[in-house]
């Protein structure tokens, strides 16, 4: 099917690729199985890389565009470190690719949405009872149900505040594909979210850790 696709687009032309595949979940590092880490890396990171490598010859030939769906969560994690990890990895893949593709006239753009959980439904509300039941005996010995419930409430509260204006992200994707001078990064987020990224990027790690620890304690 890969050969068939490439043959099809070779005659039509191929100018744009949007890597949008993504799954999300909630849980502290030790709560998640190795299988879950492998699944997330496979879908969120390797999925985009696979598609990119498949179409790279055509994108170079037609001087096309490659758009990747990242997230502001690439800069920090608040209960979904596994998702954050994959998005940070995608960002670095793009940084290398963008420089390498310049000589071929191929543009590489990253979309960094803020919280659009209510638009995309990428992450359904989490259930503390289910999370507790799936914990290993080692984790159950360290944590308690109340703590898991607190974290779940905190995370669900974030999800409930997600924007429903998903069209803002779509507009950024369209601009990345169509603009004569597309941006390398499109951050589509609320001012408060942009401020968090700003702190993360410019302040020492100890400052960011203090801000996030304070947020997590609320």
TrEMBL record:
The chain crosses the membrane at residues 66-83, 195-216. The keyword Transmembrane applies. The keyword Protease does not apply. Keywords: Membrane, Transmembrane, Transmembrane helix. PANTHER family: D-BETA-HYDROXYBUTYRATE DEHYDROGENASE, MITOCHONDRIAL, SHORT-CHAIN DEHYDROGENASE/REDUCTASE FAMILY 9C. Belongs to the short-chain dehydrogenases/reductases (SDR) family. This is BDH protein. It comes from Chauna torquata. The lineage of its organism: Eukaryota, Metazoa, Chordata, Craniata, Vertebrata.
């Amino acid at each position: 099917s890969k050969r068939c696709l490439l043959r099809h687009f070779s005659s039509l032309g191929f100018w744009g690729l949007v890597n949008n595949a993504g799954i999300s979940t909630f849980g502290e590092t030790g709560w998640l199985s190795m299988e879950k880490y492998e699944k997330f890396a496979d879908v969120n990171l390797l999925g985009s890389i696979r598609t990119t490598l498949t179409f790279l010859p055509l994108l170079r030939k037609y001087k096309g565009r490659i758009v990747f769906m990242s997230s502001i969560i690439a800069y920090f994690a608040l209960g979904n470190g596994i998702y954050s990890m994959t998005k940070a990895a995608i960002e670095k893949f793009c940084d290398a690719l963008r420089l390498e593709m310049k000589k071929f006239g191929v543009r590489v753009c990253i979309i960094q949405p803020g919280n659009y959980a209510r638009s995309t439904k990428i992450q359904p509300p989490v259930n503390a009872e289910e999370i507790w039941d799936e914990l290993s005996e080692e984790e159950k010995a360290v944590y308690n149900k109340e703590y898991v419930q607190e974290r779940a409430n905190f995370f669900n509260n974030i999800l409930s505040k997600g924007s429903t204006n998903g069209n803002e992200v779509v507009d950024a994707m369209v601009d990345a594909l169509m603009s004569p001078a597309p941006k390398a990064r499109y951050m589509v987020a609320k001012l408060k979210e942009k401020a968090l990224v700003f702190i993360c990027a410019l302040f020492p790690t100890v400052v960011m850790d203090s801000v996030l620890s304070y947020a997590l304690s609320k």
